[in-house]
C-alpha cells in the first residue's frame, strides 16, 4: 500500500449509506453524502461510554505475533473524500471519523505493506495472523484494550466489503486493513485488500 487506501464498502449507521470507490481511495458519491455520513459517525462516537468510562484516543498498536509495535496516527479523509493513509511505513493510521478502538462498532486501523525500495512496512506480515491471535491498543492514559482475531478476508478492488467500517451488532470490533497482491503502476494501487477482523476480548 503506497498511497491512499482503496476499498469499496457499505456503511450502515442509522440506515444505509451507499459508498463507492476509485482504484486508489475511498470515495463518497458526493460531498453532501460524505458530510452527512461523517456527521452521523462523529455524533455517535467521541463521547461514547464503555462500562461507564469514556474511551480515550489510541496511541499505540501492538501485535506480538508479527512483531508490530507502532505509533497510531489519526486520519480522516482528503478534500476529495478519500480516506487518508499513514505517511510513514512504520506507523499505522486510525480512521478518526469512526469509533475509537474499544467503543461499540467497528474501529478501523490501516497500515502499509510493500513499501517502495523494499523498506520494511508495519503490516508486511499481517497475513500471518491467525484466528485467536491477540493484539493490543494502548490509549493516551496508558489503558490497554485487547482484541482477538476472528477472521482474515481478502477482497479484490470491486469486492463487497460490507461491515468493514460499520457494525450493527452492538459489539466492539477493530478491523485492520492493508494492501495485498500485485502492484499496478498505472493505477498506483495493489490488486487486493487484506482485512483482519477482530473482536474485543471479553473477561
CATH class category label: Mainly Beta
Number of helices: 1
Mean pLDDT level: 74
Q: Return the string of H and E elements.
A: EEEEHEEEEEEEEEE
CATH topology: Sortase, Chain: A
What is the structural class? Answer: mainly beta
**Oligomeric state of shown chains:** single chain
Number of strands: 14
End-to-end separation = 35 Å
Strand order, main sheet: write it out.
7-8-9-10-13-14-12-11
List keywords for this structure.
203 residues; mainly beta; Sortase, Chain: A; two-stranded antiparallel sheet; 1 helix; 7% helix; globular
Write structural notes for this entry.
It contains one helix and 14 strands. The protein is globular and about 45 Å long. With about 200 residues, the protein is mostly beta strands. It has a single domain (about 10-200), classed as Sortase (Sortase, Chain: A), CATH 2.40.260.10. The strands form four sheets. The chain has an eight-stranded mixed barrel with strand order 7-8-9-10-13-14-12-11.
Blueprint (SSEs and pairs):
Layout: E1 11-12, E2 16-17, E3 20-21, E4 26-27, H1 31-44, E5 49-50, E6 53-54, E7 58-63, E8 68-75, E9 92-95, E10 105-111, E11 134-139, E12 144-156, E13 172-184, E14 189-200
Parallel strand pairs: 8-9, 10-13
Antiparallel strand pairs: 1-2, 3-4, 5-6, 7-8, 7-11, 9-10, 11-12, 12-14, 13-14
Amino acid at each position: 500500500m503506497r498511497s491512499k487506501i482503496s476499498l469499496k464498502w457499505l456503511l450502515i449507521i442509522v440506515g444505509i449509506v451507499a459508498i463507492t470507490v476509485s482504484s486508489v481511495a475511498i470515495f463518497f458519491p458526493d460531498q453532501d453524502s460524505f458530510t452527512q455520513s461523517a456527521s452521523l459517525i462523529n455524533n455517535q462516537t467521541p463521547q461514547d461510554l464503555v462500562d461507564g468510562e469514556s474511551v480515550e484516543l489510541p496511541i499505540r498498536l501492538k501485535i506480538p505475533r508479527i512483531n508490530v509495535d507502532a505509533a497510531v496516527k489519526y486520519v480522516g479523509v482528503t478534500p476529495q473524500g478519500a480516506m487518508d493513509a499513514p505517511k510513514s511505513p512504520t506507523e499505522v493510521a486510525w480512521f478518526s471519523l469512526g469509533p475509537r478502538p474499544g467503543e461499540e462498532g467497528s474501529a478501523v486501523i490501516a497500515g502499509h505493506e510493500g513499501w517502495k525500495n523494499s523498506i520494511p512496512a508495519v503490516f508486511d506480515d499481517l497475513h500471518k495472523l491467525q484466528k485467536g491471535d491477540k493484539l493490543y491498543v494502548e490509549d493516551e492514559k496508558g489503558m490497554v484494550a485487547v482484541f482477538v482475531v476472528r477472521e482474515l478476508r481478502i477482497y479484490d478492488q470491486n469486492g463487497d466489503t460490507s461491515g468493514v467500517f460499520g457494525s450493527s451488532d452492538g459489539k466492539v470490533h477493530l478491523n485492520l486493513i492493508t494492501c495485498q497482491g500485485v502492484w499496478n503502476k498505472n493505477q498506483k494501487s495493489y490488486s487486493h485488500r487484506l482485512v483482519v477482523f477482530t473482536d474485543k476480548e471479553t473477561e
